[in-house]
Amino acid sequence: MNASTVLAQSRTVLVERLSLEDGQEVVRKTYRFPTWKDQVRGALRGTLLGRNKAHREYAGLEFLERANIPVVEALHWSCKRNRLGFVTSCSLTTRIYPGDDLAQILKRGANLSQEHWTTLGHSVQKMHQAGFWHRGLSARNVMIAAEGLGIAWLDTTKSKTYPPGGMADEKRAMDLLRFWTPLQNHTSAEDQAAFEEGYGEDLDRERWWNFIPNWRRASFRRELQREEARFEKRSDSSV
Asked: How far apart are CA 203 and CA 190, in angstroms?
């Protein structure tokens, strides 16, 4: 590798654009666990005996690709562990996708064509029909091609899979509400209608909220508030 450019950085995540010796460019996302507390926290979330975050994201992208759902192309993942087996860092490398994420586009005051929104809705419909619960469905996690109607989903670290057609309405509701709640002040009724056409169902918020169990609603509302805050603060330097 000849050169790298930092695209985003936080204490535990580093995203870099890398130039390879053959002239190709890729993106490498590195999850870092710099302290023993971070390593223990990661272990409690399954990384000690199970897949690390980069591996989970790679597997999620491969699952969607097999289901003919557009994603960024995952090339490989790697993981480093200490002597006790705790993950200290793990990385996922993907190909550069020619475009911007939807959050950046909307924050610039631009918008998508109705065909784009229909394409997005149809891709989420296929995702759910395949039994894929994204759990991070957001405007930050879908790339929009600079030309044409292409899209590509990413960041499947938290995803879970179920038998095709067997995913509960609760899971579908959480994906849809997480995606649309931050967009309410940045999209039009026509945008939503085009997405509904692709998804095959309406996006009536009250209807979808009825699928969320009462015991889960307070914590899920806090999740949505955090997602809205991330969207509003979205910038080229954010993760």
From this structure: 12
In this prediction, residue 49 carries a pLDDT of 67
- Number of compact structural domains in the chain: 2
Long-range contacts of 184-191 (CB under 8 A, 24+ apart): 186/106, 186/107, 187/106, 187/111, 188/111, 190/114, 191/111, 191/112, 191/114, 191/117
pTM beyond 0.85: the answer is yes
Domain that holds residue 8: 3-95
Tell me the three-class secondary structure of 4-28, residue by residue. Answer: EEEEEECCCEEEEEEECCCCCEEEE
Q: What is the mean pLDDT of residues 67-72?
A: 97
Return the CATH number at 120. Answer: 1.10.510.10
Rounded-to-integer distance, Cα 154 and Cα 70, Å: 9
d(CA 70, CA 57): 15
60 and 128 belong to one structural domain: no
